[in-house]
Amino acid sequence: MSERHWDIEYKTPEQIAKMRVAGLLVAATLEKVREAVAPGVSTADLDALAEETIRAGGGIPSFLGYHGYPASLCTSVNDEVVHAIPNPKAVLREGDVISIDCGAIVDGWHGDSAITVGVGEAPRDVLRMAQVADDAMWAGIAAAARGLRSGRGRLTDISHAIQSSVRKAGRYGIVEGYGGHGIGTEMHQDPFVLNYGRPGKGPLLRPGLCVAIEPMLTRGKPRTVELEDGWTVVTADGSPAVHVEHSIALCDDGVWVLTASDGGRERLGDLVASAARTESPAQA
Q1: 110 assigned to a ligand binding site
Q2: 214 annotated among ligand-binding-site residues
Q3: Nearest residue to 6 (alpha-carbon basis) of 256, 246, 182
Q4: Which residues of 92-102 are buried (b: 16+ CB within 10 A; e: fewer)?
Q5: Where along the chain is a divalent metal cation 1 bound (predicted)?
Q6: Is the separation of the CB atoms in 180 and 192 below 8 Å?
Q7: What is the DSSP string of the chain?
């Protein structure tokens, strides 16, 4: 697909720095929520903690009120893939696995990230799948950085890298029809980033492009169903699912993982932009 089909909001370095503030707030919020995950805790409890943390940090929950969505988190448990609504009756049990998706707005700029967490002693195969998804996400981020530096990278290089990483790890369903997205002054912008596909297609990977990369995997088939609440997406075959996400920015000299506390330094090394490499611990 040629670049003229996309309406992409390319960001300046100053705007990316503002997005980093939102990204750090999301990272801090997810860390607090992760620590609170335990048997007996409801997804509504986690949601209340997230909203309190976001607002205390000077932000606004991105999800709350978005197209009528009633919460600050998406809390998807076991066979729920994405967009499950927190509920006081949804109490976590030993062995559950929960995907927690969080967004925050600071000074008009969005951050968006997701983690998958086991509740107590969760099944090893599902935790392994969460690690596969995380590794695939980082493979996609690395592909974006390499494509930027080569000057020849295209959007679907990210998609192909995610798919290739998953396929090397085993037999997992890569959820169809859902994926990442551009992010900035709105939570969802062009371009759409699938988690599978051939490389070398779509817009060039160039400085100023900011996207959220978010693999979603299942232990069964990739087909999903949306429930009657109009939000919750579950696996059609009832198999467990996982979901992880980071928001990234392409800078002049590398990638900045806006929602990673270290900017991506540990996983990406010298592929990280100088702005991320020189960020002080106090900033991060």
Answers
A1: no
A2: yes
A3: 182
A4: beeebbbbbbb
A5: 101, 112, 245
A6: yes
A7: --GGG--B-PPPHHHHHHHHHHHHHHHHHHHHHHHH--TT-BHHHHHHHHHHHHHHTT-EESSTTGGG--SSEEEEETTEEE-PPP-TT-B--TT-EEEEEEEEEETTEEEEEEEEEE-SS--HHHHHHHHHHHHHHHHHHHHHHHHHHHT--BHHHHHHHHHHHHHHH---EE-SS-EEEE-SSSSSEEEEEESS--SS-SSB--TT-EEEE--EEESS-S-EEE-TTSS-EEETT---EEE-BEEEEEETTEEEETTSTTTTHHHHGGGB-HHHHT--TTT-
Which residue type does 7 have? D
Residue written as token pair 């607002």: 55
103-160 tens-digit pLDDT: 999 999 999 999 999 999 999 999 999 999 999 999 999 999 999 999 999 999 999 9
Q: Backbone dihedral region of 29: left (phi > 0), alpha (psi from -120 to 50 degrees) or beta?
A: alpha
Indicate if the pLDDT at residue 59 is higher than 90: yes
The tokens for 208 are: 């100023």
Going by their DSSP bridges, the two strands 80-82 and 109-118 should be labelled as: unpaired
Do 182 and 190 form a contact (C-beta atoms < 8 A)? yes
Q: Report d(CA 25, CA 41) in Å as an integer.
A: 23
Token pair in block for residue 264: 């991506």
Which residue from 108, 114, 138, 99 is spatially nearest to 22, judged by alpha carbons? 108
Task: For residue 226, say whether it is annotated as part of any ligand binding site.
Answer: no
